[in-house]
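Appendix B, Record 12. Input sequence as logged:
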Amino acid sequence: MNAKTADKIATGVIYCLVGIVVLILVFLIGFILWTGLPYVSWDFLTGSANAMGGSGGIGDQLFNSFYLLLLTLLISFPIALGAAIYLSEYAKQNWFTDLIRITIEVLSSLPSVVVGLFGFLLFVIQFKLGFSIISGAIALTFFNLPILTRNIENSLQDVPNLQREAGMSLGLSKWRTVIKVVLPVALPGILTGIILSAGRVFGEAAALIYTAGQSSPSINYGDWNPLNPTSPLNIFRPAETLAVHIWKINSEGVMPNANQISAGTSAVLIIAILLFNFLARWLGGRLYRRITASK
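Logged structural output:
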């Protein structure tokens, strides 16, 4: 077999494998949307769940999912940004830096149920936070921190050294070079990493079952005092998210139309995650073109 024939065969095999992956993804996403979208309506998106009656919507679960995501990003992003700047710009290549990177790799590969049990024992039991939004947000921070740190570090390392040398040659200190030169150039990649990690956090269930709880008490959307128990902003109330809602109604089996509600909730969850991904690509590309002045 000559080199050209081998190259054509290898290329064909690669295209076939890529096609198989794409077909699996299209089938999976298409099946979830096909079976779930007929049950999605405005009442379904804004109504409250009624487990015994077999009706209602996912309004509370949808709000809880976005609220938990926001709190998780507020906690995890500053920590991940600081760690990534240290690893990319200040850390020397020695055994200590390698140990930090190995620790991050190990943390990122931990099963989410292990993170949930850790959060349950530490935050729910030891710190007496109970099943609450803040317990879930901190557990998701442990889950999200390694991924976000690696994404931001990779974005900072992709910035050419010429940018750093140009900043230093203008008399800027290393810290101001990082803040004024490196971070703005790396911003599209950082933003893409944040949104992609947000999509993963949004669909997480196992870690939240043990920390945020499996119930969603009555919420008064007219009360925005975060200290009141029925306020949607109260971080010490239990909060059932979309992913936990799907797991719960299928495991309990008390809701007569559990399959329909589960299918509709799955469709909403998939659409939200797809929007995160498309938004990441659109916003990252737009920021890159704006910063680099390219078309």
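The chain has a mean pLDDT of 86.
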